[in-house]
Amino acid sequence: MAPQKIMVEIFGQQLNLKSAADSNYASELAQYVDEHIHRVASQSNDPLKVALLASMNIANELFQERKNRQESLDAVSERADSLLEMLERSL
Fold first, then answer.
1. pLDDT at residue 76 in the model
2. How many Cβ atoms are within 10 Å of 54's Cβ, its own excluded?
3. Where are the domains of the chain?
C-alpha cells in the first residue's frame, strides 16, 4: 500500500502523517497516545514533561507486554520439552 496522508489530533495538536498504515489504525494510535497524555496532564503544566511522562508510561506498557510474552513463550517451550521427553520415554 502506498503512503497516504492521514490527519490525527493529539493533545489538541493537529498532526499530518504520511503512512502506509490504515487510517483507522493511525487514528486508534493517536487516540491511545492522546488518552495517555491527558491522563498525565494533571501532573505538570509543561507540555514537554507531559509528553515525556506519557511516553514513559507507554514504554512501560510495552516492556511489560514484552516481558509477559517472553514468559509465556518460555512456559510453552518448557511444556513442549516436557511433553517431548515423555514421548521419548514411552517409545
1. 97
2. 22
3. 4-90
User: What amino acid occupies position 13?
Assistant: Q
What is the per-residue pLDDT across 75-90, written as a single tens digit (0 to 9) for each? 999 999 999 999 999 9
Cα 1 from Cα 27, distance rounded (Å): 17
d(CA 52, CA 38): 12
E strands within the chain?
A: 4-10, 13-19
Q: Would you give the DSSP letter of residue 19?
A: E
**pLDDT(14) > 80:** yes
Contact, 8 vs 26, CB < 8 A?
yes
- Please name which of 18, 64, 14, 78 lies closest in space to residue 6, comparing C-alpha atoms: 18
- Which residues, other chains included, contact 7 with Cβ-Cβ below 8 Å and sequence gap of 6+? 14, 15, 16, 17
Q: Is the pTM of this model over 0.90?
A: no
